[in-house]
């Protein structure tokens, strides 16, 4: 029988009514002839409650105990969903991570998949089970202890099951009805996309359009699992939502697919860095060791200081989340104190935001950058840093212009048109 | 190292403060040189919440899914307790039922222990772990699915571990500070017992003194595990609480140890039953099949009706919980309609209570019954049914006299004196 993976997030299973509603969506697919693997998150709020208890008990907690406690939230939902489906006359049972087993590494709190043997679940399908309800977000380490995959791990679980079981598609039910050209709260002209390429989704996800967890999109791209994002609160059918799929399944790609943004960015510049081979590694190794999440990196010759420094010097600029500025500053100052790097001054701008245009079409079309910069210039928005990749162009600008920039770019690339 | 089992009930781990308080009691035993196995219940209220969700999802639920959902409550507490102990510098880890593994039968919702292999936990003790925190109330069935032991199963888990690991003692921390000669809410003269024999505790537990679950006392008696009941809210030391132990560890047993009661009883009498071999079986088989919990059974010749019935006739009286009266009535009427039994009338008295005197000393002392009946007669309390066992005498009386009867008997046997 063809197989479908359906994933329900925390808000979609927040209480018994919503679980019943989700179960109806599963029923529809069973009636259409699919065997279904359902991946469930914990009921909304439960994971935070459990994490709160762990943190209230122990500040530097044992990640193995954290995992044992926190994974229980998904187990509850899995059992309730199986019961609900049984109540509707559908042969279903729940599976906890260790029962499948979902084998992972032993990196507790952020484990990675090792293998998902199909044998146990396949056997039950062969015996007439129509739905396997699997607790998301968790697995079992080689030593038999419970692991969790980190936040958003249920998305990743869903894609991993779709890959392991050769599912026709992985449907992710959430509280939005699809992926939009930009955030509808910022631009009223935002349009829901019918299809988007994996790579575009990856850029949009990591840039702040928090519909799908980045790791799950990466995994889907690697195993070519078509991924559909749709709402658990609307009536949905086989054309609802947005399909995240391989580039060649999209007939006429637009040059630009969407505008993403990230509000709470900070720009850090090391002024007049002594420029020598290995200087970049000397700067970014201590940042990585301090757990600082560096995003954009730009290096340019510091003309202003060139005259004062007869040796080769440069300025090094990078962006980090605002919350990590102090971590970054301390890491840099420590590295300078230890003589590993040399710079004149560390300047911080915590009032910036990042805006990006994303689209696989820009690979083959010149002029996207020009059109982007023109649109921003027409609004008198000053660009502070530019960074480009194959399918996106990002700029840092003053945070107060962020909404204006998103709207201007949405208009400039005519994204309201299908 | 000597080993102790410590069990904490739901009110003793109801929140993070109480878990911390319980952890201090564990710490004290570790510092005294014990390795400790801690058995924990779910945080108070959690199990009811989970059961409510299951029942709200499915009325005739799959007991395997019920178990998977409900067992999660204990898993949370086990992890939090292990974290708390680690925070105090004590090497500890949590174990879920399937990790030990606690092998049980597959009677989901009321599973029985099959085996508790020591290997995994012993190995961790050998590696320096001082405390194994085990989720109570649960186990794993032969097919790998999660089982629960039924209400009060955490007490039973504690005793089973004490037996399996040869523990010196099993300390059960609860919200009372020991076992009393009777309910202190009924008699102000109730006195806490230092020691009580297993058999006496068994009679008291099953008669309504709900401190320890009956099955756990049976198990302790069978494996001769000394069981101590004490309060998790008081300062306690090695003499606190009540020790439930083998008869021969009690130096001078009193004739009567305690007065038990059970408030919501009903008396059912089948009047003028045709008396023939097998009639008792014909009456009680349908009651058992209907799940009716029959307690006392008394049969006596029905003199009143003897003249009207030339054949042998009898009256049959038995007691059931008030809540099961209608089930019992329907079972009897159905059996009569099917011609399996014959009787003239079924009379029900739902206004009775049971009062019992319990004591191993009464085995060797005559006159306990006489003294009991005299004490009740002096208060003008009419006895409706009498039933005796080796170490207890129970009577059914009008419910309105129950408190008076308990107080009178407590006085008559001078239980206020140590």
TrEMBL record, chains A, B:
For molecular function, the Gene Ontology terms on record are: aspartate kinase activity; ATP binding
Q: Name one Pfam family in it.
A: AA_kinase
Fetch the CDD domains from UniProt: AAK_AKii-LysC-BS, ACT_AK-LysC-DapG-like_2, ACT_AKii-LysC-BS-like_1
Q: Which amino acid positions bind substrate, per UniProt?
A: 47, 74
The biological pathway it contributes to is: Amino-acid biosynthesis; L-methionine biosynthesis via de novo pathway; L-homoserine from L-aspartate: step 1/3; Amino-acid biosynthesis; L-threonine biosynthesis; L-threonine from L-aspartate: step 1/5; Amino-acid biosynthesis; L-lysine biosynthesis via DAP pathway; (S)-tetrahydrodipicolinate from L-aspartate: step 1/4
Query: What processes in GO biological process is this protein linked to?
Result: homoserine biosynthetic process; lysine biosynthetic process via diaminopimelate; threonine biosynthetic process
- Residues annotated for ATP binding in this entry: 7-10, 174-175, 180, 185, 210-211
The ACT domain, residue ranges:
268-360
For this protein, the Enzyme Commission number is: 2.7.2.4
First and last residue of the signal peptide: none
Q: Which domain of life is it from?
A: Bacteria
Q: Which SUPFAM superfamilies match?
A: ACT-like (SSF55021), Carbamate kinase-like (SSF53633)
Could you tell me what reaction this enzyme catalyses?
L-aspartate + ATP = 4-phospho-L-aspartate + ADP
InterPro entries per UniProt: AceGlu_kinase-like_sf, ACT-like_dom_sf, ACT_Aspartokinase, ACT_dom, AKii-LysC-BS, Asp/Glu/Uridylate_kinase, Asp_kin_monofn, Asp_kinase
Q: Which UniProt keywords apply?
A: Amino-acid biosynthesis, ATP-binding, Kinase, Lysine biosynthesis, Nucleotide-binding, Transferase
Similarity comment: family membership: Belongs to the aspartokinase family.
Which PANTHER family does the entry link to?
Answer: ASPARTATE KINASE, ASPARTOKINASE
Please identify the protein, giving its name as recorded.
Aspartokinase
Q: Which organism is it from?
A: Paracoccus solventivorans
